[in-house]
Amino acid sequence: MKTLLFTAAAFVAGLAAPHLVATVAASRQPAQTPRVLMSPGGTALRVLVDAKSLGGNEVEVAELTFPANSDSGDHRHAVTETFFVLEGQLEQVVNGKPVALGPGGIVSIRSTDQVRHKSGPNGAKVLVIWAPGGEIDRVTARWKAR
Question: Which residues of the chain have pLDDT under 70?
Fold first, then answer.
């Protein structure tokens, strides 16, 4: 499952060279219980791929679960951020322009973009891909381990 998630992440992030995927799959550490972190507002981040499991910092993949009607506030990321909605409704406000996403919806946000994540009345679960990696530690600096 994790190899499949990385393959999807690598494709979306533009890193889908077959030799890279094979190298990463061969060098991965044994499966561990994913790290889960919780924001003060109730958003949960489950780490799926990070520098430790990948053996490098080319990409990070996480599952984010937003509570109902959450609003991240305007912010920027230091890397490209790609969201793929798994469940629920999510509105991404990118540079002031709203993008409504439901299951199967995808959006990529550049490091130069201002973004705001707003979940619907039932919350949302998304796959988030950061390329290159390094965002998990920055984003969750004030979050608590769960």
Answer: 1-32
The CATH fold assigned to 2-145 is Jelly Rolls (2.60.120)
Contact 60, 135 (CB under 8 A): yes
Residue that the structure tokens 């937003």 belong to: 66
CA distance 91 to 143: 23
Q: What is the pLDDT of residues 20-40, one digit of tens each?
A: 333 444 455 555 678 999 999
- Give the separation between CA 126 and CA 89, rounded to whole angstroms: 10
Q: Which of 24, 28, 30 is nearest to 10 (CA)?
A: 24
